[in-house]
Amino acid sequence: xxxxxxxxxxxxxxxxxxxxxxxxxxxxxxxxxxxxxxxxxxxxxxxxxxxxxxxxxxxxxxxxxxxxxxxxxxxxxxxxxxxxxxxxxxxxxxxxxxxxxxxxxxxxxxxxxxxxxxxxxxxxxxxxxxxxxxxxxxxxxxxxxxxxxxxxxxxxxxxxxxxxxxxxxxxxxxxxxxxxxxxxxxxxxxxxxxxxxxxxxxxxxxxxxxxxxxxxxxxxxxxxxxxxxxxxxxxxxxxxxxxxxxxxxxxxxxxxxxxxxxxxxxxxxxxxxxxxxxxxxxxxxxxxxxxxxxxxxxxxxxxxxxxxxxxxxxxxxxxxxxxxxxxxxxxxxxxxxxxxxxxxxxxxxxxxxxxxxxxxxxxxxxxxxxxxxxxxxxxxxxxxxxxxxxxxxxxxxxxxxxxxxxxxxxxxxxxxxxxxxxxxxxxxxxxxxxxxxxx
Length: 439
Known about the structure:
Helix content: 40-55%
Strand order of the largest sheet: 1-7-6-5-2-3-4
Order of helices and strands: HHEHEHHEHEEEHEHHEHEEHEEHEEE
């Protein structure tokens, strides 16, 4: 129907008839509204707001109209700061005066939240503020009032100084179901924030306890090591003055066990040093060939004196390998490998080799110790460089763990495997090669 025809039809109606139609329409609308209110049915509206000034004003109006509760999520610490400058805390203060509960969640780290809470407590201690995990990144701020109304506001640019420039689109709803959904999200994040806080506190206490435990173990190991050296020294002096074979055997047992106890104390101190990240290396230029020769000669003597049924081989090379390393620590690593090889090779042979290896255009010296002993238990093999991994009744299973950390501190790599023929094992390590010289 054209506008002209509609206008003509209206003009034909008398004033009384027109008023009658208007009153009839209003009566129907009022009656419908009363029926909906009586039945508890409320029409739900969703409104998209493009103007940030209107959406922010609406957020303040909605909070001001609260009767029981205000739930507020800020997408970032910057968003919260912007709102503080606009007077959000004064608004919260006003609603709190009327007995309304206000809870706030902010995407921020623990230090930022601690600072905010300290600031807010001075002004408004009734407000409860918690942090949301920073990994849950979002650009949406949420307001839920009395679990009946909700407003979400997009953050378009969080770097802006004022909320009008930072905000984007907004969506308002007076749907109870939508408000309850947002409130449920808020409660989940609220519980998560509390659990995270408790977990962090528990972790803090655990670190304190762990530090105390390590300090105690380190102190105990030092106290244990202090009397061991005099025991060994004085026992060896007594040994040199006694000719009786039986008495010498008894003193041998004392010295052997004292040295074993000394190794345990040294290992414990090494582990606490490594785990506290305080391992220090006194590096110097070393001729690894000469160092290896001296260590091998010493262990050959031990094998003979210990009546071991095995042979130890080490062939000199035509090149001398120069490395920049801590001599005492490298001796410790080599001694660990040789000690293990002897312990697990009751009879047979141990071959020690030294050579050159290239990796990613870098030169390394490679030291290997291969034995014909028991080999590594398959259950232990995947974790053999971890702490306390052993099936032996001797030692704490710390040697390979300590050796690995020493080698890696030098920029090298620890290696270990069972031999391909199923007999014995091969362990070794690499160190960055400083230079080689032909002998």
